[in-house]
Design a protein that fits this description.
By secondary structure, the protein is mainly alpha-helical. It folds into two domains: 337 residues, no CATH class; 123 residues. 57% of the residues lie in helices and 6% in strands. It contains 23 helices and five strands. The protein has a five-stranded mixed sheet with strand order 2-1-3-5-4, covered by helices on one side. Helix 20 links the parallel strand 1 and strand 2. Helix 10 crosses helix 15. The radius of gyration is 25 Å and the shape is globular.
């Protein structure tokens, strides 16, 4: 049997379904995305860019900018794609929050269009496609994640892109789309190793579905080969550096598997998709399971969801790369729910209003909309969120550290290096502190530990948020000041102690193996 017919052989097993029946009028233009979807996507991108320059950088953005200045095929805590992208933005557009956030905003717009394309592929008409796009555009996870330039925006795009290519290959018997899936998966793997979870779930889903015969053809394996080829440089880097990503995975599990995280795991999954829109996602999940030819997607979604809830419940957004497919199926279910009503206009209005109203309520906690002087009045979750509270204060921290450095120099204790507890503080000083002529900035946290101390001296060390970690290695340490974010914001970096240590018991190079922190 040749390979095209082997692929097609999967289809009779799922022939008694809606998608192989006589297509309704809306399905005659299966690939068409309504103009309103493009308007929604454009509005999303415009809003994200309009507020991109408010407040300031988030700590991960500073870290990835600095990682981009140490370009490599891998890092302790992520593959190289995001640092490379941020390095390009740094060189082309300068070191500004807006420059770093252009790609995330565009990625979010692409995810919205993909949600509508999924809805079309699943058999939804115009209403279902628009509902899917609107729910994704209003989802808190997309609004918040695509405001910052870390690994998440590319991750949230790579997952649905890979899944969409596989779905086209299977549902429309277009085997060459497996090659596109391989490219999307490879780029996703170069952004975040979590893509492996999607690929494992997808392989199991296909094996357990009526599409199993496709695994006997060359196309899925060609796509897998492309993904492996793109990912290979990072795998080699990990192998030659002792697989630090495994240590990071263990640390993430420990940090994000507290009892509170398990309790909040499933509710957070629903809230991340929208305060009032989660019924559409639930309907989509049920629709995926009830439709035989979509069962491979349902199995994939279930495997990923169970893994996240069981292993890292404190990271609910790890699942949300599959949200466009779930929401798309929900758009189809919603469209059919509307069509069954006598008062269709009321149900349509309800379906469109729910995500908009839910987002309007939550938006000040998702994006930097209120004046920065009023952030302290927002709920604690917003003050400690990546897109709002944690973007406040990094220039002021750099200024405070520089002031302590200058004061010590005036007193004859000029610091010979700076040591910080976390990559966030080191990156803030490296990226934002260039004008202060600070001594070398070091840290034992994640990639900073691997970059090492270089030739920095440890004679007099200005210590930021790490007195407890290094005190045992110096004859004397004393507290100089405690820094808090401006405007009374109570974010994750409140109460940073700044001190000075003198009289090292050994050189940095001797101490360095004891200072490593992967988390």
């Amino acid at each position: 049997m040749n390979e095209p017919s082997a692929t097609a052989a999967a289809r009779p097993q799922v022939a008694a379904t809606t998608m192989t029946a006589e297509p309704p009028p809306a399905a005659l233009h299966a690939d068409r995305v309504p103009l309103l979807v493009w308007v929604i996507a454009a509005a999303f991108v415009a809003i994200e860019l309009a507020v991109s320059g408010r407040y300031g950088f988030m700590q991960d953005e500073l870290y990835f900018i600095e990682a981009g200045r140490h370009l490599a095929f891998g890092y302790v805590d992520q593959p190289p794609l995001t640092p490379l992208v941020d390095r390009g933005a740094d060189l082309l557009l300068g070191v500004t929050p807006t420059a770093i956030r252009i790609i995330p905003a565009l990625a979010g717009g692409a995810v919205i269009v993909l949600a509508a394309r999924f809805a079309a592929l699943f058999g939804a008409g115009r209403v279902g496609r628009v509902v899917a796009a609107l729910v994704m555009a209003c989802s808190p996870v997309l609004l918040g994640a695509d405001h910052v330039g870390n690994t998440t925006p590319i991750d949230l795009l790579a997952w649905p892109a890979a899944l969409f290519c596989v779905a086209i290959a299977l549902l429309r018997d277009r085997p060459r789309w497996w090659l596109g899936a391989g490219v999307a998966a490879g780029l996703g793997l170069e952004d975040n190793n979590l893509m492996v979870l999607l690929l494992v779930g997808l392989a199991i889903g296909i094996f357990l579905s009526g599409f199993r015969p496709v695994l006997r053809t060359r196309w899925p394996w060609a796509g897998a080969g492309i993904a492996a080829l793109i990912w290979a440089p990072n795998v080699v880097w990990q192998a030659t550096h002792g697989w630090p990503q495994l240590a990071m995975a263990s640390a993430l599990h420990h940090e994000n598997s507290t009892p509170g995280a398990y309790i909040a795991g499933l509710p957070d999954q629903l809230l991340y998709l929208g305060l009032l829109a989660f019924p559409i996602a639930i309907a989509g999940f049920i629709r995926l399971w009830r439709t035989p030819e979509l069962r491979f997607v349902a199995i994939t979604v279930t495997i990923v969801l169970v893994y996240v809830l069981a292993w890292v419940p404190g990271k609910p957004y790890y699942f949300d790369g599959l949200a466009p497919a779930v929401v798309a199926a929900g758009g189809l279910a919603t469209e059919q729910w509307i069509s069954r009503a006598r008062r269709r206009g009321f149900r349509l209005g309800l379906a469109l209003a729910a995500p908009l109203v839910g987002t309007a309520v939550a938006l000040p906690a998702l994006l930097p909309l209120v004046p920065v002087t009023a952030v302290h009045s927002l709920p604690a979750a917003a003050q400690q969120s990546a897109a709002v509270g944690n973007t406040v204060g990094w220039p002021q921290l750099a200024e405070t550290v520089a002031a302590q450095d200058a004061a010590l120099a005036r007193n004859g204790e000029r610091p010979t290096s700076i040591f910080t507890g976390y990559y966030a503080e080191s990156a803030a000083l490296d990226v934002l502190g260039g004008g202060y002529h600070l001594p070398p900035v070091l840290s034992g946290h994640n990639a900073y530990w691997m970059w090492g101390p270089g030739q920095a001296s440890d004679r007099t060390v200005l210590v930021v948020d790490a007195l407890g970690q290094v005190r045992q290695y110096f004859a004397e340490c004393r507290l100089l000041t405690t820094w808090n974010p401006p405007y009374h914001v109570n974010n994750d970096w409140t109460g940073i102690q700044i001190g000075v240590c003198t009289g090292p018991t050994a050189s940095w190079h001797s101490l360095w193996p004891h200072l490593r922190r992967y988390e």
